[in-house]
Fold Bifunctional protein FolD.
Amino acid sequence: MNTKIIDGLKLSKEIRSNLKIRVDNLCSKNIVPGLAVILVGDNSASQVYVRNKIKACENTGILSIEKKYPENVNETELLKTIEELNKNSKIHGILVQLPLPSHINTYKVIKTIDPKKDVDGFHVINAGLLMIGKPMFLPCTPYGIMKLLESEKINIKGSETVVIGASNIVGKPIAMMLLQKGATVTICNSKTKDLSSHTKKADILIVATGKPNIVEGSMIKTGAILIDVGINRNENNKICGDINFDSTIGIASAITPVPGGVGPMTIAMLLTNTVEAAEKTIV
Ligand code: GUN
């Protein structure tokens, strides 16, 4: 079987170039879309993600401001910043980079963001709206995966779909989106017994665990569509996903590479949500 490598970088560039038109249109109405990014501590992966998000805003004509705090910041200060950003009419989107240090209550921090500015789609209101099939903002990584599946014309309705990972950021929301498109969805987690027995049934397999090589060729069905959300470093310090890529070639019908698959789509959808938040301010 010929395995197609799904080019997320290419699709993300198309989305970003289309967004520029919407940004220009907003600017002609004197609205410059604005995103505030809050980064706490010195987690090196988070620093890279935030830098990439800010750079992408600049390239798309979106105003961005970065608020950086040391690891030992107190929660009250963070909440105060969010409340100020909620009131700032130049800011249409607010993003708090996760994970936060353990002394901070993540739920409380995210809940303080105005749901209309919650471009990450993590607020309990947005999670609830997604659950009942009336989303306002979709979380960026699952939203990007849905766009990839759509652009590859992959049939979701009636498919056996398996999601490995049950996080609020990826696993749970992508399962909900796929369910709403008519997939039969199995969500596996770190306690799942006999992972292979599930993965072998999957027409579409989404892997979001942060564990390199958790899935390999012998665990998948011939013709499966593989979506790899992981961004890890292997023993040679090279970026790799959660799926053992080489072992799936010739068995899967398509796979997203790491890097160049889901990662760039996450950023494209963050920009999309930010532009949409700005457009919604026009009455
Ligand atoms: N940490 C890992 N993924 C994400 C994301 O999509 N948004 C935020 N804010 N933090 C993350």
In short: The chain has two domains: 31-116, 140-262. The first helix runs from residue 8 to 28.
